[in-house]
Write a structure and sequence with these properties.
Elements: E1 3-7, H1 11-23, E2 27-31, H2 39-45, E3 49-52, H3 61-69, E4 76-80, H4 85-93, E5 98-101, H5 106-121, E6 130-133, E7 136-139, E8 144-147, E9 150-153, H6 156-167, E10 173-174, H7 175-182, H8 191-207, E11 215-217, E12 221-223
Protein name: Two-component response regulator
DNA-binding region: 128-225
Keywords: DNA-binding, Phosphoprotein, Transcription, Transcription regulation, Two-component regulatory system
Length: 225
Amino acid sequence: MYNVLIIEDDKDMAEAMRKLLVNWGYQASVICEGFEQIWKPFEAAEPHIVLLDINIPAFDGFYWCRKIREVSSVPIVFVSSRDSAMDIVLAMNSGGDDYIQKPFDAHVLVAKLQAIIRRTYEYRTAETQLIECSQVILNLNDTKLYYGEECLELTKNEFRMLRTLMENRGRVVTRESLMKQLWNDDLYVNENTLTVNMNRLRKRLEEIGVGDWIQTKKGMGYLIP
């Protein structure tokens, strides 16, 4: 289930959008106050896609789009009543992926979200089940990683870590989430074990030319941009 974060200061509009998305099978969370600092609710939501208004208090949507782009490539769709060509240009130049003008048709909004999610998260072939990020390809059938002409045979833990990170490309994956993926049945695993596994994986990736790919976000977790 994909999670949509709505950043909108009109509470009625935000709630209407949330209900619409929930009815279509999405998870949806809302930020409609505290616009001076949205980092904590943004990190807590771990969204797959962001719906962002332009006219919000303190800092406008263009500002927050640029700030989000500094740490994440999560898709951002501007939803605004502003309709000038310059607003659309600024939205795209700030790092936005699409622009929807209010008032909008509910079916158009959902269709645009579905298209962006397909492009961003569902790039796989039915036959071989591939995930591709930055020319690095993970085969879900044989658990091999491909980069150019290089092929890497992954261990079980390496495959689980990479699959989780690649499926959440552009979003920080917490250490707790990775540990749960790797050792769900063991409640007493030391966190250092994850660090050792991650360092070993990074070293193997460097050997095939994929260096500095998995980023560490201090105090948060790991990210593939």
